[in-house]
Amino acid sequence: MRRNIFPPLTRRQALQLLLMHSIGAGILDAIINFGVATAVFKGQPDTRLWALPNSIAGAAVVTVIIQETLTWVLDGGLAWGEVRKGVLLPIYPEETARRRGWSLPRKGLAGWICRGSLDVFGPLPNPDLPLRSKILKRLGRVLVSASRGCVLGLIVALPAAAVAVGIAVAVWPGLASGDPVSGFPGPQIFSAIYTFFLGVILTPLSTITAMAQAGECGAGPVKLGSVGSVSSAEDAETGSRDSHSDNFKLQDFDGPESRGTEGGPNSTGQLLGITMPESAYTASKNNQIRLE
Q1: DSSP string spanning 208-264?
Q2: For residues 66 and 146, what is the distance between their CA atoms, to the nearest angstrom?
Q3: Which has the closest alpha carbon to 89: 237, 210, 251?
Q4: What is the pLDDT of residue 24?
Q5: Which tens digits make up the pLDDT trace of 56-113?
Q6: Which of 12, 100, 164, 258 could form a disulfide with 8, with the two C-beta atoms 3.0–4.6 Å apart?
Q7: For residues 228 and 174, what is the distance between their CA atoms, to the nearest angstrom?
Q8: Average per-residue pLDDT for the chain
Q9: At 3, is the pLDDT very low, low, confident or very high (cuts 50, 70, 90)?
Q10: H or E segment at 125?
């Protein structure tokens, strides 16, 4: 079966993704980076394409890495929270893989990036932990997510910067020759436009990944036989189907190692803090997850 690049979305999911996690995110990124560029290029009357320390080309590369790292953590965490509250509908990868030929990557670098849980703001598995342990646990979640966002930023940094600089050189008089160009508001406008398109294109990647992870965990309005909604996942772990087996295994999203826990009627229930009856396990195993 042909593998689709994008998951099938309902009209509600598509509108939420487009308005809030694409265009809306791009506008927010543009406003923030206009302010950042104002601070970075302050007191610099002239700006050059390559001249350090604050060059247009250098800022274009660094901006992608920083923005994607923060986006992967913040947008992914917020999307997870929206699914948990029922604002954003999750994506059920098993169902979409069976019917529409789409699922989260499981192998290679893409699989490693998508395996790190984006549920950085979700409830901790043990609310009675000491404060220091809670802080370390939360920090660990953030670092796991940030590391994957940083790698994604490194991957797209050079292509994105090359396209942006190429367009800037074509429309910004004097930039291509290396001559100093105007200070304010030239760099600020470039940064705002550049980061707007970065936000529009890249933010949906973290949102879709979070929606699919939440669907695997059973978060949101999920119907599994006689089991109702599940509102939280066990400490940044999600369930995923092994591509070489029909057994359901639990992937450890706190690191690249998989715990390899064999699935059964209650393995997912133990993960989520509930007890799943046999009927719920059978429904999940037979890919009969449906939206309410």
Answers
A1: HHHHHHHHHHTBBSEEBTTB--B---STT-EEEE-TT-SSEEEE-TTSS----EEP-
A2: 10
A3: 210
A4: 96
A5: 888 899 999 999 999 999 999 999 999 988 899 888 877 766 666 788 888 899 999 9
A6: 100
A7: 63
A8: 74
A9: low
A10: none
What is the spatial distance between Cα 263 and Cα 29, in angstroms, rounded to a whole number? 42
**Would you place residue 124 in the very low, low, confident or very high pLDDT band (cuts 50, 70, 90)?**
confident
Taking residues 190-194, report their average pLDDT.
92
Distance CA(103)–CA(283), nearest Å, equals: 19
Residue type for 226, please?
A: S
Token digits of residue 224: 């599994």
Locate 194 and state its tokens: 């550049």
- Per-residue 3-state assignment (H helix, E strand, C coil) for 66-109: HHHHHHHHHHHHHHHHHHHHCCCCCCCHHHHHHHHCCCCCCCHH
CA dist 177 → 19, 50, 138, 225, 291 (Å): 39, 10, 48, 67, 57
Q: Are 194 and 261 in contact (CB under 8 A)?
A: no
Please choose, from the candidates 199, 210, 202, the residue with its C-alpha nearest in 3D space to the C-alpha of residue 155: 202
* pLDDT for residue 169 is more than 60: yes
DSSP 291: E
Dihedral sign of CA atoms 31, 36, 37, 41 in order: positive
State the Cα–Cα distance between residues 262 and 6, nearest whole angstrom. 30
pLDDT value at position 254? 40
Q: Which residues pair with 181 in a beta bridge?
A: 47
End-to-end CA distance of the chain: 28
Whether the CB-CB separation of 222 and 272 falls below 8 Å is answered with: no
Can you say how many angstroms the Cα of residue 245 is from the centroid of all Cα atoms in its chain?
A: 27
